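In the previous chapter we treated chains in isolation. Here, by contrast, the input contains two separate entities that must be folded as one system, with a combined length of 858 residues.
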Amino acid sequence: MELKAMSKSELEAFLKETTEEYDGYKAKGLKLNMARGKPGADQLDLTEGMLTAVKSNADCYAEDGTDCRNYGIVDGLPEAKKLFAPMLGVSEDEIMVLGNSSLTIMYDNIAKFTVFGTGNGAEPWGVQAREKKLKWLCPVPGYDRHFLITEKFGFEMINIPTGENGPDMDMIEKLVAEDDSIKGIWCVPMYANPTGITYSDEVVKRLASMKTAAADFRIFWDNAYCIHHLSDTPDKLLNLLDEAKKAGNEDRVLMYASTSKVTYPGAGVAVFASSKANIDYVKSLMTVQSIGPDKINQLRHVKFFGDFNGVTEHMKKHAAIIAPKFKAVLDELEREIAPLGIASWTKPNGGYFISFNTMQGCAKEVCRLCKEAGVVLTGAGATFPYGKDPEDSNIRIAPTLPPIEELELAAKVFALSVKIASAKKLLAE
Amino acid sequence: MELKAMSKSELEAFLKETTEEYDGYKAKGLKLNMARGKPGADQLDLTEGMLTAVKSNADCYAEDGTDCRNYGIVDGLPEAKKLFAPMLGVSEDEIMVLGNSSLTIMYDNIAKFTVFGTGNGAEPWGVQAREKKLKWLCPVPGYDRHFLITEKFGFEMINIPTGENGPDMDMIEKLVAEDDSIKGIWCVPMYANPTGITYSDEVVKRLASMKTAAADFRIFWDNAYCIHHLSDTPDKLLNLLDEAKKAGNEDRVLMYASTSKVTYPGAGVAVFASSKANIDYVKSLMTVQSIGPDKINQLRHVKFFGDFNGVTEHMKKHAAIIAPKFKAVLDELEREIAPLGIASWTKPNGGYFISFNTMQGCAKEVCRLCKEAGVVLTGAGATFPYGKDPEDSNIRIAPTLPPIEELELAAKVFALSVKIASAKKLLAE
């Protein structure tokens, strides 16, 4: 029976019963975490062989004879470029392979564009910001750490609603055509954080070809989950750089990925791909900044995987571990929440998150209830710029870190918390 | 006989003879390099054991149980802080242990201060630069990559002459007391690049206590060679942070070092030490920028060295390899150049360089002659801001990279080039 169809007394009985069950879990003193998109230890164990992939002095040389222990090669080893170029579907002169992590490269690129400009003759964003507030488009719900960067750099962030095909392109096209103070957009185009959706071909094409009032408008294409499939019939994403080239807009495209959730979040390599002109520009700036990334760690990746096929095969092992975790949470939600008609959620084909929408005004209360019972969630609101979810509805569930027994417990506590918050809300109306 | 004492005909005979000898080397088609301060392969071989210091999943955990493979710990592992804090003589809450390399951290700190300010309430340097040109003090000769950073960020660089005790403190004190547009100074205080000198206690104390017109004046203390002794009676450097605390100026001190020339330039760790307030400030900014440095590589360092004593013992192995290289070059100079009275050079107790001063107006010609004979040197002028040595006199010799046989050859070519350039210069006067 849907909760909304219940009478007041039925709702009160439901709340009482649910609260008793919740209190039972609360009494257990649980310490569970569904907050961050972290791989579990069993996933990290998969890469043990990489630790000794470079194990002697003789192993430290690149194919061209470069001693990877010494200084140099600011844009990454040629064989690392070859390994990872297929991940983002670019050529080897359109990619840099750097250190740990892609978030740092995004931050660094925004810092560079702020101080030095985007390299196409437009004034540095920091200079333009003297005259007018600069703005940034943020498809929501989205990734809190993206929003933190643009908040820190002083951009006014504009929420863009996201549907099952991606962000609202009508709204985006209108905004960027009219307002030259809009300098960029955050996109997680595949298995998006947190919604799990993949941008449709039409959305990619429109992003690539749309007219922008600002010549230095940039798409920050964080393709973090591009090889993180959970199913045998993965989503497909059109290549933004290819589409942008067709429209002559390739310089607006900055694409990122990393091995943070492939090998190690704490010791991975990040890749940055863009037009040849942008790569050359960023490299010219990095030459002042860097003596080169950790080339030995790049060699470890190259030797461990061999080629890109080795990477995609490896990802199947991750999927085998985390797909059952997603299923455990989704099964609990389907069983306990679906019949009540009080929430909606995504069933992603890949990535690291389930995006859960409570009834309006319940997300914070759900998080509070979970926390009191020892289950940590990403704070409600975190998926929106400034931490402000106008509906107080979205919660990002990250099911990968806990062992599956803990996850099943956490999902139960979560479902009970949703029931309690919803019933209270309906009783208060 | 000193060259200056020769008659014209003696000089002409000297030039002819020397040029014949030079041409003999030139005909050999040499390919030798004394340009960059790179460790030789034999030095890099010393750290082979570090490659397998973390070799299994079980090895990946920090002392406090942190899984170093996963996300987190933006300021470095506690045991890495413990290992490296003695290197800069600071406590563990005054240090961050980061990734590869210290140059990148210096750049990053200048970028942060440009965009966000130094954290003490002063306006960001980028904002102040709207009103007036900001300036930076550059002890010369100095490190080209330092100067490149401040050039890139738009500072007007002011040359500060350096003597055997450090930079000219009378000049520095006067400048910083009067001009609040001076925001910082580059210092390599121990075995300086390239002069090899170590700052005297008095210089350190005056830098720590001097009055500055700018509240956001910062000393970039690149202590790159603090443990790179070449002798059993090493230089001693007073601790700048300690001295600055006595004067209440600890926030002006930013100290850097790395393991680039201890373990691997391509896969080392860098450390940044400062006042607790500065560390907290930079950490608060880095939390937006970084998911943490490569913690596995930090663990490798910790496991390989054990403690700081392990580091200093390891440095003796480096000294055993490179001290003979310095001796080979210095012996050649002593034998071939000293009697001619045409140049002066440093005999450092540590570090990576010999600083060589030709007669005025000869440095470029010496580098050109060396290059023509297949010996690459750091370009003349590189040790000065904007690449402009007003005397055209200073050449930085880096003796560590080539094997000793090659180095002896290169030193011969160098000495011959100095003789030729000097004789030509005297003949033209």
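Chain B touches chain A through 56 residues (CB under 8 Å). The first helix of chain B runs from residue 8 to 26. Compare these points with the single-chain example from earlier in the chapter.
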